[in-house]
Amino acid sequence: MVVDDQPVVRAGFAAILDAEPDLTVVGTAADGAAALDLAARTDPDVVLMDIRMPGMDGLTATARLTGVPDSPKVLVLTTFDLDEYVYQALRAGASGYLLKDADPADLIAAVRAVAAGDGTLAPPVLRRLIEAFAIGRVAPAVVPPEGAPEGLTPREAQVLTLVARGLSNTEIGVELSIATGTVKTYINGLFAKLGVRDRVQATIRAYDLGLVRPRS
């Protein structure tokens, strides 16, 4: 589903995505309120969401969309390369953040990645987000008592920490001397316990829980 207040932009993104054999655009909406209504009727897997729109903005709509069970993944697509929007979008539950000047191939790849449960961030956004964590500008929201983060087992906490460090399932398996399939089972369990949908959201929770800290 494509959500943008500009008709030409909406139609352009929809045409790019609908031309792919494995992607189908189930509908488009011009604002957040219309997006919520359309999502309830069409049950999309991925919502491509603009931020600045009249009426209900994209951040509010994202929080509403992702705040229910079996929610769609949201990929925020915007002209605005602003840190505060990135943080708000990810906190609202977005699985990715892409700029509107991205190449069509990057847009298509991002939609597929988000649909598969992975997160994606535009390279300049990712670079600044990492820098922000590194210098401590993005502080953990909540740090529970050490040793009992969200009821995770010690092994689950290890896996979550490695996910937050950016390791793949294979690399985590090598690090912990366990099978890749076992790593996938742990990650699926982590997603369920933490109420997250992808690795980007899991990484944010790792910072929130204090498992990963700036410069660690």
From TrEMBL:
Residues 1-115 form the Response regulatory domain. It holds the Pfam family GerE. Coiled coil: none annotated. Residues 145-210 form the HTH luxR-type domain. Gene3D superfamilies: 3.40.50.2300. One of its GO terms (biological process) is regulation of DNA-templated transcription. Keywords: DNA-binding, Phosphoprotein, Transcription, Transcription regulation. GO terms for molecular function: DNA binding. The modification 4-aspartylphosphate is found at residue 50. This is DNA-binding response regulator. It comes from Virgisporangium ochraceum. The lineage of its organism: Bacteria, Bacillati, Actinomycetota, Actinomycetes, Micromonosporales.
